[in-house]
Design brief:
719 residues, 3-stranded antiparallel beta sheet, Aminopeptidase, alpha+beta, single chain
Length: 719
């Protein structure tokens, strides 16, 4: 058996779809953009370093505020423990008195049995809670800080801590209520300490405020927002001049202090908030999601009355919520500092601005953080128009390429992405419920107490779903189905954007901007995709990262499936953006990833055998492509000896599309006693071409098909 000579590397034909040199690394700038986006998100979510106790007196100090928390939360003090509760009330009164103010204590029955509404609220309580509450009073502490004008901003928090309830009995009538073990260090020692330290810093400036302040430290918030109800029931006239209420709450121990709730038509309010605070942590998604949740704060009482409201709370490490670990030993000073920085800046902007802000607006605002101290915001009309444009443009972009898409693969990709995401989310939720049933974690329906498995279950579900989605998309991409994957993901994003625009308008920006980013990459010509992918990748990550953290901390305690589902959502568009930037495709890809049609002369069918001679440019022209030979279409043939090996490039004369170089074919010949031999004899064929016809040395013969064949020597077998 003879062997073909080794072809020099310079003469080998590069596999179609393969890239060389720096072209293979075209996706690196987009990957760098992903890293920068993660850094940007971290800059928003990481609270500032705490100021020491010896910080300037006009600045907020977390360490000084910590002394307030230590005093207030030295013991549990729910309304069911009257002695401890009264000591906490006296501590609050003493702190304001030490600042030189004269606090008032608004004392009223928790429930007025002469009021039908109050009586109905009382009767709705479980029997185990009605008995201890029926003879109790709420005692809210109020401080007036008069300014030169009667325009008033109210700062509000509550000082009572949470009680405990044993819900092991199926019948609520059999539930047991106890004073509880929560010290209330975060809920709501963070709020009380922030207000007192803020008031101290303002007083240290030594000047009278231009606009008035009203401090309201409510009571009995944990048993039904009773202190807030009583403020409006008995002191409604005192709130006629209140134009803004800033409420401080806590549902966790750490993380940033998030502005998570506003009143409706908040465009001017958001301008005031973002313009006054240096390190805000907020997004319009938070109010949109929170208003659909069953949670409530004191603002749930004031919002229906038409008050303008801002609500701030920390939610990190939410498993300390209402637990014995909500104690001074677990206080996060950076979190307290973030509370104080925002509240002091807002209060100072209100108190010392002679004109004061105009908080009236006729629409909401859409907003999200881009970097620490930089929050993008735009009017609701722009957000709705942008959302509608994204949905329509995505459908149009897919429709324009409908004729080149294999719709069976598109629909299959839609289904594949959906069931993989849903399965991972369901498994995570099932693991959460199983851990609660086995006693390895607090009950999922009432999550009280540290839950070390929460983050692990979330991470496992997210990684499982992300891995499945990533594997699927890479497989499709390398098989040449990039256009179908793009179309499928765009359709899913358009559907999600449309749903959010209807149900959660303030949260729609997450899907809308992701849709626009992916579509921009898809519609960009191949040469420019590497650079279009950079801002697209950055935008997707910087939009999703804070949202995922927020949803994990807010919802993972009870709805792990929702957080895992949301965490997997950006994987598909981000993967396609990175691959579009320059990820190499398989050499046997049937077509380019941008969904261009096959050449008109391509053979019908699918797969790598669709054509042997693709469209090429004229030899010698810039970017002229090398022809594909049989050995490239069937690469295993050369490796296993079925073909004699790689074949040299055709001569410079002639069109490479018009001729084959003769292969050497290994055969089993009887002349060789059954041993492999070599088919020795060139065979050339070409389409009729002036250039090739002139160069032929053999006499052509014309066939009815219109093809010409050169006369070739009789082939022989070489043993």
């Amino acid at each position: 058996m003879s062997t073909a000579a080794e072809t020099p590397p310079s003469s080998r034909t590069e596999a179609p779809g393969r890239k060389s040199g720096f072209a293979r690394l075209a996706w690196l700038p987009a990957l760098v953009a992903v890293v920068l986006a993660l850094i940007a998100a971290a800059s928003v979510l990481l609270p500032p370093a705490p100021a020491p106790a010896d910080a300037p007196v006009t600045e907020f100090s977390a360490e000084r505020a910590k002394t307030v928390i230590d005093t207030l939360a030295d013991e549990p003090h729910s309304v069911l423990d009257r002695e401890a509760h009264d000591r906490a009330r006296d501590d609050v009164v003493a702190m304001f008195t030490d600042l030189g103010y004269e606090p008032q204590v608004h004392t009223h029955p928790m429930y007025n049995m002469d009021d039908p509404v109050s009586r109905k609220e009382f009767e709705a309580k479980p029997p185990g809670l009605r008995e201890p509450l029926k003879d109790l009073q709420s005692e809210s502490v109020v401080v007036e800080v008069p300014g030169k004008s009667e325009r008033t901003m109210a700062l509000m928090a509550h000082y009572d801590s949470a009680f405990s309830v044993d819900t092991s009995a199926k019948n609520p009538d059999d539930w047991t209520f106890t004073p509880g073990e929560s010290h209330g260090a975060a809920d709501d020692g963070y709020g009380v300490a922030t207000i007192i330290e803020t008031l101290r810093a303002l007083k240290a400036e030594g000047r009278q405020p231009e606009n008035s302040l009203r401090i309201v430290i409510t009571d009995a918030e944990e048993v039904g927002l009773i202190g807030a109800y009583n403020e409006l029931a008995y002191h409604r006239a005192e709130y006629d001049d209140v134009e803004l209420i800033l409420n401080l709450e806590a549902r966790g121990m750490s993380g940033p202090a998030l502005m998570f709730e506003t009143s409706s038509k908040n465009a001017s309010l958001i301008d005031f908030f973002l313009g006054s605070t240096g390190r805000p942590a907020t997004a319009s998604l938070m109010p949109a999601v929170y208003q659909k949740m069953p949670n409530g704060t004191d603002m749930s009482v004031f919002l229906p009355e038409g008050f303008t409201v801002l609500n701030i709370a920390a939610i990190g490490e939410g498993d300390h919520y209402h637990d014995r670990t909500d104690a001074p030993d677990y206080v996060s000073l950076p979190t307290v500092q973030h509370y104080g920085d925002q509240v002091l800046e807002l209060t100072r902007a209100w108190a010392f601005d002679p004109g004061g802000p105009d908080l009236k607006a006729d629409a909401d605002a859409y907003f999200f953080p881009l970097w620490r101290g930089l929050t993008v915001r735009y009017p609701q009309a722009v957000g709705l128009a942008l959302g509608a444009a994204a949905v329509i443009a995505a459908l149009v972009a897919v429709g324009l390429r409908a004729r080149t898409l294999r719709w069976k693969q598109v629909l299959g990709t839609v289904w594949g992405l959906t069931w993989r995401t849903v399965m991972a989310a369901a498994l995570a939720w099932g693991a959460q419920l199983a851990a609660a049933a086995l006693g390895w974690a607090p009950p999922a329906l009432y999550p009280i107490g540290p839950n070390p498995l929460r983050s692990w279950i979330f991470a496992a579900g997210m990684l499982l779903g992300a891995g499945l989605v990533l594997r699927m998309l890479i497989k499709h991409w390398r098989a040449g189905s990039g256009p179908e994957a793009m179309a499928a993901v765009l359709l899913l994003l358009a559907l999600a954007s449309a749903a959010l625009l209807v149900v959660f308008p303030g949260a729609s920006y997450v899907m809308v901007l992701t849709t626009l980013a992916l579509m921009a990459v898809w519609l960009t010509p191949a040469r420019g995709r590497a650079w279009t992918a950079v801002p697209a990748a950055f935008l997707i990550v910087v939009v999703f990262a804070p949202v995922l953290w927020f949803m994990h901390e807010a919802l993972s305690l009870t709805a792990m499936w929702a957080t895992v589902f949301m965490a997997i959502t950006p994987v598909a568009p981000l993967t396609l953006v990175l691959m579009s930037a320059g990820w190499p495709q398989d050499g046997q890809a049937p077509r380019a990833a941008d969904g261009d049609r096959e050449p008109s002369g391509a053979a019908p069918g699918r797969g790598p055998h669709r054509r042997l001679l693709p469209r090429t440019r004229r030899p010698g022209s810039p970017g002229a492509a090398r022809p594909r030979y049989l050995s490239q279409v069937l690469p295993s043939a050369g490796r296993h000896g079925l073909l004699g090996g790689p074949h040299p490039r055709p001569p410079a004369t002639g069109d490479p599309r018009l001729a084959f170089t003769a292969p050497s074919i290994a055969v089993l010949a009887s002349a060789c006693d059954g041993r492999p031999g070599t088919w020795a004899g060139p065979a050339t064929a070409s389409r009729r071409s002036p250039s090739t016809a002139a160069s032929r040395t053999s006499r052509p013969s014309t066939r009815p098909s219109g093809r010409t064949f050169g006369r070739t020597p009789r082939p022989s077998v070489v043993c």
